[in-house]
Amino acid sequence: MSSPQQFVNYALGGWELAVCSSLLLQGVLLGQTARYLANGFHRTDPTIMRVWVAGLLVLSLGRNLFGIQLMYEQDTAHYLNFPAALGEWLSARFDASFLISGVLVYYVQMFFCWRLWTLCRQIWLPSAFALLFSAGLVCSILAVPLAHMKQPVRWAAAYLSVYFVSDFLLCGSMMFFLLSALPSAACALALLASSQKNPDYVAGNSALAITVVLTQLLPMSYAYSPCGR
Q1: Average pLDDT of 82-98?
Q2: What residues contact residue 180 under an 8 Å CB cut-off, 6+ apart?
Q3: CA–CA separation, 170 vs 128, rounded Å?
């Protein structure tokens, strides 16, 4: 059985790094949004693009506020109370954080599918990617209720695998147009590898901290990719 100190080092400590790193990328995203407005792109872009930028900003801000609230519970409300902090870690709110991350990633991926359609004008190609990404979203939804059950199928691993494969296929289809999506796919690959190194999330394993950090960085890297262009 792992000690409370091991849990703090690898799980709760990883969560601290995850939220702070996500906030750093949120600041970059806010700067990109300010540049988008200052340069007047919102006046010339189609309505769907302006709505998408606003939706991305709202979703990413809401997700980071949710992470700050969880970090407050961990650091202030349950300061040095390891059993209570462990209860927060295993609570439904952390499951909700995983689901929110999946929704944000899916939201950005739908933008890439729309962008692919505007370039190729062949509906079958972006539709195939949209179907793959939808399958990944379903896996992320199923991963929440099944996360604490002994199931032979690891839905979280399936969710990450689908996104990893789909992203690299999408990058191959739009090599010269969506090169900025490559860091997100690499982040998904690293997250998949770390989650499989520690599939049962055993405390006291450095892979747990890596998994926690990358889980938070993955959707923010997706949000950063399209806005940086």
Answers
A1: 64
A2: 225, 226, 228, 229
A3: 10
